[in-house]
Amino acid sequence: PNPNPNPNPNPNPNPNPNPNPNPNPNPNPNPNPNPNPNPNPNPNPNPTKTKPKPKPKPKPKPKPKPKPKPKPKPKPKPKPKPKPKPKPKPKPKPKPKPKPKPKPKPKPKSIIQKLVLT
């Protein structure tokens, strides 16, 4: 009826009892918990209120000053020789006419003189 009732009831019951219970339990326990914790601490709560930085104005290049042209020296004009002015002849002063001296009036002679003269 059954030539081999139980020749091999469990041919391979447990060939490898614990080959690899957990092949990769935790290969990288904490690779990168927080890759970028705080890239920008205060990004910009109100981006519209930021003033754009004024671009620096390019400094104007100084224009080279034109070299002053040397002014031509004026040629000295020859001074005209002064003509000798004719000396005015002195006008002869009219000699004042001598005033005639008044003739002295004869003093009235005293009586004694009259007597002596005569």
From TrEMBL:
Residues 1-118 are annotated as: Disordered. It comes from the Eukaryota. Residues 50-108 have a biased composition (Basic residues). It comes from Naegleria gruberi. The lineage of its organism: Eukaryota, Discoba, Heterolobosea, Tetramitia, Eutetramitia. Residues 1-46 have a biased composition (Pro residues). This is Predicted protein.
